[in-house]
Write a structure and sequence with these properties.
This is Cupin type-2 domain-containing protein. It holds the Pfam family Cupin_2. The chain is an alpha+beta fold and about 190 residues long. The chain has a six-stranded antiparallel β-sheet with strand order 6-5-8-3-10-11, with no helix packed on it. Bound molecules: fe (ii) ion. The site of fe (ii) ion has 4 residues, from β3.
């Protein structure tokens, strides 16, 4: 490619020409390995009785736009990651009778175990009926929605790699479908 062609290339608008960034740092191995070694996590337990107490309150809330009824079990030792482990989200999700969690998708996977109730989910256009004891897996970027068809609240035990995606700053969310968000500060998937 000639230089003439290079300068005539159509590019995005440039607001700044960058030489160095002070946050581009370097470490020797003597510095890096101690930095890399993290304090271990303490064993932790969440009592079902305590979870239910919190979930009961959330279940009485009027459901907001794209909102959910779940309690995230967050291990305090995971710091900024905010997971049950640093890379894993564990949530107990309730869906009241007749409720519908509308179609959306994200690049975190989701694993569901049904603890109570019955209903169905539509994963990438395929219907999966479920009831107590069933487990189903929703792969990354598969659209999914959940409907409670029973007479009691449906309770789902949900595992996702959402904190890992968030820590990498590559959590991508599409909700409602057609509305894509890069989930970083200032660009949240939805506001309560
Ligand atoms: Fe989801």
């Amino acid at each position: 490619m000639s230089e003439d062609n290079a300068v005539n290339l159509k590019t995005s608008p440039v607001t700044e020409v960058v030489d160095r960034t002070e946050w581009a740092q370097m470490m020797t191995d003597d510095e890096y390995y101690p930095f890399l070694i993290k304090k271990n996590l303490r064993p932790a337990i969440w009592r079902w009785q305590d979870v239910v107490e919190r979930l009961d309150v959330v279940m009485k809330d009027p459901l907001r736009n794209a909102d959910r009824r779940f309690i995230a079990l967050v291990h305090g030792d995971t710091g900024e990651a905010g997971g049950v482990f640093p890379s894993i989200f564990l949530g107990i999700q309730a869906i009241n009778p007749g409720e519908h969690i509308v179609a959306h998708r994200h690049n975190s996977y989701a694993l569901y175990h049904i603890m109570q109730g019955e209903g169905y989910s539509i994963l990438d256009g395929k219907r999966f009926d479920w009831k107590r004891g069933d487990t189903f897996a929703c792969p990354p970027m598969a659209s999914h929605e959940h409907i409670n068809t029973g007479t009691e609240p449906a309770i789902q035990y949900v595992i996702q790699d959402m904190p890992a995606r968030a820590m990498e700053r590559n959590l991508i969310w599409e909700e409602p479908m057609g509305h894509v968000f890069h989930a970083v500060e200032g660009n949240r998937p939805h506001q309560p």
